[in-house]
Design goal:
single chain; 114 residues; mainly alpha; 4 helices; elongated
């Protein structure tokens, strides 16, 4: 009887170990992956809305320039050029903030200076 109880106790400890390892892996992998997925989803949705809003804003600026200026005939391309320059400046500003933003401050000094 003692031998049977010892094997059963060992089996129970093995089952407890497996349960502990599985729950630990779920905690350390599934949780962070869910958090990362939520972060990416909200970031993507925000980027889409921000991009759409900026496109509508640029179209509005174009329409204002077309209606309020007397640039017609051979100069009708000037409002498009102005809006193109504004869009390029917005892209340059966004790129500059991405490159020199908070991520650069988190790098060690040896990598940040490269």
């Amino acid at each position: 009887m003692a031998k049977n109880k010892g094997i059963r106790g060992l089996r129970d400890q093995g089952n407890d170990l497996i349960t502990l390892v599985v729950s630990y892996l779920k905690q350390e992998t599934v949780g962070p992956v869910k958090d990362l997925g939520r972060f990416v989803a909200y970031g993507t949705i925000g980027s889409v809305f921000l991009g759409g809003g900026l496109v509508l804003l640029l179209v509005a600026v174009l329409r204002v320039l077309q209606e309020e200026t007397n640039l017609t005939g051979n100069l009708s391309w000037v409002p498009y050029l102005i809006v193109g320059i504004i869009a390029t400046l917005m892209l340059a500003l966004a790129g500059w903030r991405i490159v020199s933003g908070p991520a650069k401050r988190r790098l060690p000094k040896s990598e940040a200076s490269k």
